[in-house]
């Protein structure tokens, strides 16, 4: 009950969603690298301001390396290496605006806050439940695959059967998890039609408004330059 | 174990089942999306590969949730997550919506329990991914200009240009159909081999 007033994140989940939308528009329109770079500097300074210094440095370094590869290293390297990596590097640079804001959001926002934000934005309750299960299940898939790999290395499995041996346990455990999770969720009243309440409250503050304004400026810039 | 509630609207359990299988579907989908970046031919065949390998989660989801809206919800979730990763275009959005609606219609007509109906729905659903490479044909000039403006290497653009023939467009649409049929067939065999024994899937025909 300590942090009731503010959910504790630097930005509101809704602000993140808006910024994500803008990042998508920037990625689509692809007008100039400058807008993209400006965007990355903007988001990265947000990460810095929120106190995640390590993350900010890591991402900006990564972006610099990608730019270096794209414009200096790869044009000078032998063709075989270049053709393989150029596409990879190119795609990474293109996706960078979204990746950056997306991973910032993942670090900053808990699933509970995200669910609350989706409710406030009047998403359908059905979509909210399935989507939050989907997001929550990604780490479980990773774990499941490691377990299956461990089990596989204990037995000799022909490489032609590896895929089957990987997929079938994954499906089995997915189905079992679905059963268990539903039982737990029904017990906790997931099917109760009454509007759900939350301990957290979401409120937009100065950070959110500032970010929204800057984000919209980027949007305007994108359309003007087009 | 596999009790299916009779009410026609999606309940908590159905929603969770859809969520979990969408998660698996998305992971497989995403792997091939990334592989599609390696070479244009991989990109064009991508919908086919995805159909081949996602048959199992899709068919299992269908047999667990014989209700209206399951496919649509799976499509919306996939779309929303793609939106976060920034790989979503308007063309994909359109093909995805059409594919999901057609899939729902196929299941509605076949009455949700028929395996054949689910296979048809899966074919439609798989065709939704064709929206990813489709701009090569429908917005050819603009797409080529954009991609060369992004600093893509000449060899990539040249091979893309070579591949943008009408024949490849046919292949783009036939690959997911063949992939979906094969994927559904494989998953049917695996159902027999593993899941029916475990009592997870009822043997509906």
TrEMBL record, chain A:
It comes from Lachnotalea glycerini. The keyword Transmembrane helix applies. The keyword RNA-binding does not apply. It comes from the Bacteria. The chain crosses the membrane at residues 16-43, 55-74, 80-102, 206-225. GO terms for cellular component: plasma membrane. CDD domains: EcfT. This is Energy-coupling factor transport system permease protein.
From TrEMBL, chain B:
InterPro entries: CHP02185_IM. It holds the Pfam family Trep_Strep. The chain crosses the membrane at residues 15-35, 41-60, 72-99, 119-138, 167-186. The keyword Transmembrane applies. Keywords: Membrane, Transmembrane, Transmembrane helix. This is Energy-coupling factor transport system substrate-specific component. It comes from Lachnotalea glycerini.
């Amino acid at each position: 009950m300590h942090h009731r007033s503010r959910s504790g994140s630097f930005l509101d989940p809704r602000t993140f969603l808006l910024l994500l939308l803008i990042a998508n528009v920037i990625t689509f329109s692809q007008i100039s690298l400058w807008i993209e770079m400006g965007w990355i500097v903007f988001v990265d300074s947000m990460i810095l301001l929120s106190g995640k210094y390590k993350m900010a440095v890591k991402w900006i370094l990564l972006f610099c390396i990608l730019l270096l590869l794209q414009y200096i290293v790869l044009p000078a390297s032998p063709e075989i290496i270049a053709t393989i990596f150029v596409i990879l590097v190119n795609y990474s640079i293109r996706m960078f605006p979204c990746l950056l804001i997306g991973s910032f959001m993942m670090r900053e926002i808990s699933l509970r806050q995200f669910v609350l934000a989706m409710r406030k934005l009047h998403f359908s309750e059905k979509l909210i439940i399935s989507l939050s299960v989907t997001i929550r299940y990604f780490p479980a898939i990773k774990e499941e695959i490691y377990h299956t790999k461990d089990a596989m290395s204990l037995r000799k499995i022909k490489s032609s059967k590896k895929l089957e041996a990987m997929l079938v346990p994954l499906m089995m455990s997915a189905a079992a998890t679905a059963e268990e999770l539903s039982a737990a969720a029904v017990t906790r009243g997931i099917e109760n039609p009454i509007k759900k309440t939350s301990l957290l409250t979401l409120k937009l503050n100065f950070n959110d408004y500032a970010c929204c304004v800057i984000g919209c400026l980027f949007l305007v810039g994108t359309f003007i330059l087009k | 174990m596999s009790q299916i509630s009779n009410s026609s609207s999606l309940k908590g359990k159905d929603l969770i089942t859809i969520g979990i299988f969408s998660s698996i579907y998305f992971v497989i989908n995403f792997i091939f999306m990334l592989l599609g970046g390696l070479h244009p031919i991989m990109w064009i065949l991508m919908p086919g590969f995805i159909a081949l390998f996602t048959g199992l989660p899709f068919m299992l989801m269908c047999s667990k949730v014989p209700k209206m809206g399951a496919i649509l919800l799976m499509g919306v979730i996939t779309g929303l997550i793609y939106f976060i990763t920034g790989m979503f275009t308007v063309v994909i959005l359109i093909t995805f919506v059409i594919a999901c609606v057609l899939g729902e219609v196929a299941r509605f007509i076949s009455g949700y329990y028929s395996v054949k109906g689910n296979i048809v729905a899966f074919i439609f659903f798989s065709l939704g991914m064709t929206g990813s490479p489709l701009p090569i044909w429908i917005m050819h000039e603009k797409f080529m200009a954009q991609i060369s403006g992004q600093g893509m290497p000449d060899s990539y653009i040249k091979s893309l240009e070579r591949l943008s023939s009408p024949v490849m467009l046919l292949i783009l649409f036939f690959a997911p159909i063949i992939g979906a049929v094969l994927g559904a067939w494989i998953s049917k065999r695996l159902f027999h081999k593993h899941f029916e024994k475990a009592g997870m899937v009822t043997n509906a025909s």
